[in-house]
Amino acid sequence: MTQRPLPPFSAIRAFEAAARHLSFKSAAEELCVTPSAISHQVKTLEEHLGQPVFVRAANKLALTRAGEAYAEALTGILGDLVAATGRATAGAKAGPFRVQATAAFNARWLVPRLERCPLRGALSVTTAAGAPDTDFSRNEADLIVHWLDSPIPGCHVLPMLKTVRYPVASPEVAARIEAPQDLLKEPLLRDQELDCWAEWFRAAGVVASEDSLGGEFNANCDINLAAAERGQGVSLAWDAIARATLEEGRLVRLFDIETEPVVIYSVAYPEARADDPRIAAMRDWLLHESLEDGTSADPVRVEAAQ
Question: Locate the HTH lysR-type domain: which residues (predicted)?
């Protein structure tokens, strides 16, 4: 790589401070050096540029036209450098990176892939009693995995997981089920919010009224999956959430029939912290993982950002 013909950084710092103060003495006090050291560094810069940057007369210091233009450019460059340095060191100075999500997401999606998370050493994961609290002034989170994709005032909300549902059961229960209509003889484990059993039965061509479904309503899908693992009924699982459990053999998928895909999780964080490098790293990892799984809610956007 060709080296760029830049002046020494010590000369740049000395000049920038002297240009702000229009005083070698004040610049020296700021940088904890002597006025003669500032004068020497400025001379080095002038030799590098091939022209003077200050006019010195009657104990007064003034910028030349070239010096004024150079100082103005340096102000922006050094400001960007300070900001970049702050971003680069934020992870080392900060405490735990706090993520809040639902029980099902944490236990069945996040934990199986935590070893790939770029922030795993700093990650502090909390489980919301229901859907994660969207008020960042009180939820003590840096980022939340938001239920569904509704807007949150003052926050960026990026749809993440879009997935279908299908019935799952323990191997013992699955062994006695041969056709979709057989499910009507089994205890159906149902969600209090976004229950999709009626939709699934319609897709399966089974006539079943809401009253005939019966079943047990639970607070969230993780409770239903846990109950299904113990042979207590059949759960209608979100594919993106249940895959790891199915791969481990604790649950068995019943039939190839699926509901229409729905966005069930989004990444959300405050707009004011959009430039936080740890938020960006966690956001990008979550979106990339969903893309790799084939469950991304916005694959075109994620691929374009990579």
Answer: 7-64
